[in-house]
Amino acid sequence: MREVFLSHQSMVNRQSRIIATRLVLNLDGGAAMADAVGTLNALASVWPPGDKPLFISCGKANCTAELLDWSPPRNAVIEIPAASLVGDHAPALLSALQVWQPSVCLQFDSAAVQALSAAVQFRFIGLDAQQFSLPQLKMLGARTRALGIGIAFNVESSKDFHACLDAGLSAACGWFFTKGINQSAKTLTPGQANIVRVLNLVRKNAEIREIEAILRQDVAISYKLLRYINSAGFGLSCEIQSFRHAVSILGYDKLNRWLSLLLATASKDPMATALMHTALWRARLLELLAHGLVDRSEYDNLFITGAFSLLDILLGISMERVLETMRLPDAISDALLGNGGRYGPFLDLALASERADGAGMAAQAAMLGLRADAVNRAQLQALAFAESMEF
Questions:
Q1: Helix (H, G, I), strand (E, B) or coil at 279
Q2: Residues 21, 343: Cα–Cα separation, whole Å
């Protein structure tokens, strides 16, 4: 079986929340639909639970009936280009859809009118924001509203995101929200500065009383910190009730990662919720990818690298300015500033997966000695982790 790397995109609604994930099968280098099925079957044990949809796209490859040899989980949505429902392979695909009846998203294209007359029930209608103008999106969204929930794919900017929503579509898919609008802030806010003070004290193993003195000055920090630690993603068997209790149970190293996340929650960015979800995904992904490749003592550093990778967007300050205020290991700073270093390849692999860059993912994975299955599994485990956190 040829290796197939999964890349992913987030689907964001008008409340700026990630409501679904799009998984793209990068069928590069001669990989066939049978390879895609094998890839998906291998992920059964780590498939995220719950009702939040996971869209499956064949990318640039033609979607055929062979894809339905996979038994889609209940929350999976199969994306099918309209052209696949009217071409030479259409009869076999239509037959498979009628037998298995998975949730389907119709990818709207020039064959859509004919495809909509097929005996298939569509849950979603996907419109490519790069193929249609905004007036066309508005017209098509209105005309297909009774046929399925309208969503936009390949949205590249916040301006286009809002335009798609104004056109009547329910959500948009892409990484537009990670690009940021501007970086107008010159300094950290008082709340952000307090978190950095606590973070620096924790990193140098200061006395608990010193750290508690700062926490008592900002009740909101204490509340958010305890909420994070007690989230399902942490998996503790008992509830942490105080900072002192957290130190005794977790130790300073583990506490450091949760303070890092806490800094990101201080964002005023209108897309903060989606950005936090992505930062959590990257944090857990980098940690999982590093297993067996670095010393266990460095896992927390990889987590923090991912968590901080969007900090400049979240706080509206350049990454250089953010890092000036913190005492971080050089390996973390180098990765965040794009200077490579030991952790850079792990972050580069995560970023390649967000670009639907199968070849780039394969090259980065090869540098780290990772196979596609390990990368794909880590991505879904990281997604489940991000979903389990409260923010």
A1: helix
A2: 26
Question: In angstroms, what CA-CA distances link 53 with 18, 72, 78, 104, 173?
Answer: 10, 11, 10, 11, 13
> Any idea which of 116-125, 261-270, 303-312, 313-322 has the lowest mean pLDDT?
261-270
Report the alpha-carbon distance of residue 9 to residue 89 in Å, rounded.
Answer: 28
CA-closest candidate to residue 300, choices 249, 237, 257:
257
Residue 364 pLDDT > 90: yes
Q: Give CA–CA dist 208/30, Å, rounded.
A: 58
Distant-in-sequence, close-in-space partners of 201: CB < 8 Å, separation ≥ 6: 210, 211, 214
Q: Which residue has the tokens 């300073």?
A: 252
Tens digit of each residue's pLDDT (9 = 90 or more) over 167-178:
999 999 999 999
For residue range 106-135, list pLDDT tens digits in order: 999 999 999 998 889 999 999 999 999 989
CA atoms of 158 and 178, how far apart (whole Å): 9
pLDDT tens per residue across span 57-76: 999 888 999 999 999 999 99
Strand partners for 105: 79, 124
Give 362-371's long-range contacts (Cβ < 8 A, gap of 24+). 362/3, 362/5, 362/28, 362/29, 365/5, 368/289, 368/293, 369/293, 370/289, 371/3
Collapsed DSSP state (helix, strand, coil) of residue 152: strand
**pTM here?**
0.90
CA–CA distance, 241 with 257 (Å, rounded to integer):
18
Q: How confident is the model at residue 390 (pLDDT cuts 50, 70, 90)?
A: low
List strand residue ranges (DSSP E) for 174-275, in order: none
